[in-house]
Amino acid sequence: MHRKDFNLVIKALKRYNTFLVASHENPDGDSVGSILALCMALEKMKKEVLLFTPDPIPENLQFLPQSARIISSSPKKNFDVVIALDASDVKRLHLKWSDIKYQILVDIDHHPQKKPFGDLNLIAPLASSTSEIVYLIIKALKSVDAKIATCLLTGIFTDTGSFQHANTSPYTMEIAAHLMKKGANLNKIARATYQSKSLSALKVWGLALARIKQDRKKGVTLSAITQKDLKELGAKPEDLEGVVNIINTARGTKYAMLLMEQKGNKIRASLRSELGRGVNVARIAERYGGGGHPLASGFTIKGKLMKRKGKWVIKK
User: Is the per-residue pLDDT at 26 higher than 90?
Assistant: First the structure.
């Protein structure tokens, strides 16, 4: 992250008055936490803010302050600034750009981007999360309070796998400590995000783990969940959040993959690895039009999951 880019973003936040703050489809703790925190900081500055994610907020994130105000229908409105958080690609916003007029598009992300898409770009691949970047922005604006701290710590906590992933730096822990001092309750965040699962969520986790297959030659450990599975168990796609991290702990694994059927003849893949395994999962994801970090990436392709001769295959 370049200081010049940071200063330009701060200047834009101070200068303009109306903002659309948006993030990616299938919202997670980092995307939701970062847009809520930035929204509250902007409103402290007397700015007008609208929040958008293409899909509804998962149940386990609805404890976050002001999460109910996030809309999932692309707005028809004029804004001074559109801010994309944690999106990695402008297509992941799913905004109807023909319905929106704006002066500046700001791209803020911790995912590596070959071609940043904003008029202003603040990209920090070494940050643990987009929430960590937003923390620096809000700190510069001198407006961190307990509600903002809760949102930011949720984003950092979930994107670091509860501080277990390799993207957890000493600086990340310093930020987390500061947010706790500001009033964020880590125990409450942990209970809401990881320690409070429905029976249907536990059942779909059990099914995903029971289906694990391992190719020792390639070093991949894989599982799959279909739309039929979700329907039969009464589970939701967000109930699978975190399963791929458990799959990644299997001995002999170089990288883990969870394939999840989605509506509209699509399959979403989540990939994970660890330092020292010699696999960059971002490169694997890029082959299929996705991306992310070397140790945590994903992609979405067209097709349906089918089991053939004991193996999961993709039918297009």
Answer: no
- The number of domains in the chain is 2
Q: CATH code at 250?
A: 3.10.310.30
Residue 229 belongs to domain spanning: 199-315
The dihedral built from the CA positions of residue 203, 205, 208 and 209, taken in this order, carries a sign that is negative
Tell me which of 142, 164, 193 is where a domain ends. 193
Buried b (16+ CB within 10 A) or exposed e, 114-123: eebbbebbbb
Over residues 2-18, the mean pLDDT reads: 95
Distance of CA 153 to the CA centre of its chain: 14
Q: The domain spanning residue 63 has which CATH number? A: 3.90.1640.10
What pLDDT sits at residue 311? 79
State the Cα–Cα distance between residues 112 and 12, nearest whole angstrom.
23
Residue type, position 230, single letter? L
